[in-house]
C-alpha cells in the first residue's frame, strides 16, 4: 500500500481530527498557567478596589492591576489562537491535497468521538506530584482565596452578620494554646478538643478562612483519611483536623504592624481589632454554648494586649527542654528549606498562615526583653547553627516567663507526654461543660543531641526553663 492509498483510507479524516484535538489540548495544558494567572489578576484587581482608602490613593495600584490584567488576557487569547491553529492545521492541509479522495466531510458523530478522544489524551498524561501535595488547580484556589485579604474581609462582614442573626454573642472565655513550635501544641490541641463544647478552625475550612460558613455550604469533607503531616513527626491529620489557622485573620487585619523583614514584633491591638477578633470567633462557633479554641504560636505577640482587655480567656503556654526543642527546630528548618526549594508553593502556603517558625521565610520573635547578646545571635541569622535556635528559644520563653495571670497555664512538654490526663484535667478544671473524652496514652519522645551550643546561651536557657517549671500548672 503506497502513501496515496493510505491517505485514501476512510479513517484518515478521523485520525487527523483526533491528532489536531490532541495538539490543541496539549497546548492548552502546557499554557494552563496563563489561564491561572488571568484568574488571579482578575480577583486581585477586585481586591484592590475593596481595600480601604480613597480612589485617588488606590489609583496607581488600580492602573498597575488593570495593565497586568490586560497583558494576562492577551496571553490567554494568544494561547487559544495557537491551540485553534494547531487543531485545524492537519485537517486543513488534508483538504489542500489533490482530489484523489472524497471531500473532507467525515460523519459528525464519529468526528465528535475523535475530537473528544484526542482532546482527552494529553490530560491523562501524569504530571509530576508537587512536594506540597497540592495540584495546580488546588494551588489556584488557595491563591484566589488567600492572596486577596480585602475581599476576604468583605466576606467576613457578611459572616459576622449571619452569626449575629443566629444569636451567637461574643464570648470572652476562649482558650488559646501557644508557645514556640515543637513543644507539643498540636498534640495538646487534638487531645483537648473532644473534652468540651469547643469549636476550632480545621483543614476543612481551608482556604476560605475568613468565610468558613459560606465555604461549608459547598465543601463538606468527612476527614476520615488521615496522613502524616509534612513535619514528618508521626502526627496524623485529616481534613477535619484542627490546626493553627487563625493567624490568617490577624495578618489580614494587622499584618504590617507586626510582620517585619527582620522578625515578628510584639504589638498593641486597638479596641476595634480586639472586638473584630471576638466577632471572628463567633463566625467559627456554630452554637451559643461552644467555646472558641485556637492553637497559635504567634499569639504571644499580642498576648499582653489581649490580656489587658480580657482577664477571662485561658492561655496554655507549652515549653520544652531548650536543647531538645532547639535541635528539633533546626531539624524542621532544614527539612522545610528543602521542601520549599522543591516546591515554592510550600513557602507561599506557610507565609499565608503566618508560619514563620522555620523554612526559607523564618523570622524570629522580636521582644524588647530579649538580652542584647541573644539578639545579636538572632541578628546574625546563622540558622544552620544550634546557637541560633537556642537564641530563638531564649527570646520566646524569656518573654513568656515574665507573664503572670491566674488564667495563664504553663505546661512542660515532658510532663504532658508523661501524664497527659493529669495535664488536661488541670487545664479544664472549673470549665463548664468540660468532660472526659478519649483517654490519651503517655509516651516518650527522647532524642540525643550530640552537638553542644554556646555554654552562655545554654546556661541562660536552662535558667529560664527552671523558672518556667516553677510556674508549671498546679496539680501535677
Summarize the SSE layout with pairings:
Elements: H1 3-7, H2 12-30, H3 32-50, H4 55-95, H5 108-124, H6 136-146, H7 149-165, E1 175-178, H8 185-192, E2 198-199, H9 212-218, E3 227-228, E4 236-237, H10 247-258, E5 259-260, E6 263-265, H11 271-284, E7 291-295, H12 303-309, E8 314-319, H13 322-342, H14 344-352, E9 365-366, H15 372-380, H16 386-400, E10 408-412, H17 413-418, H18 420-428, H19 455-470
Parallel strand pairs: 1-7, 1-8, 2-7, 6-9, 8-10
Antiparallel strand pairs: 3-4, 5-6
Quick tags:
Rossmann fold; elongated; 55% helix; five-stranded parallel beta sheet; alpha/beta; three-stranded mixed beta sheet; 476 residues
General description of the model:
The chain is α/β, with parallel strands linked by helices and 476 residues long. The chain folds into two domains: 113 residues; 333 residues, Rossmann fold, CATH 3.40.50. It is 55% helix and 7% strand. A five-stranded parallel sheet has the order 2-7-1-8-10, with helices on both faces. Strands 5-6-9 form a three-stranded mixed sheet. The longest helix has 41 residues. It is elongated. The mean pLDDT is 88.
Compact overview of the structure:
The chain is an alpha/beta fold and 476 residues long.
Mean pLDDT: 88
Biggest sheet statistics? 5 strands, parallel
Tally of DSSP helical segments: 19
What is the percent of helical residues? 55-70%
Name the shape in a single word. elongated
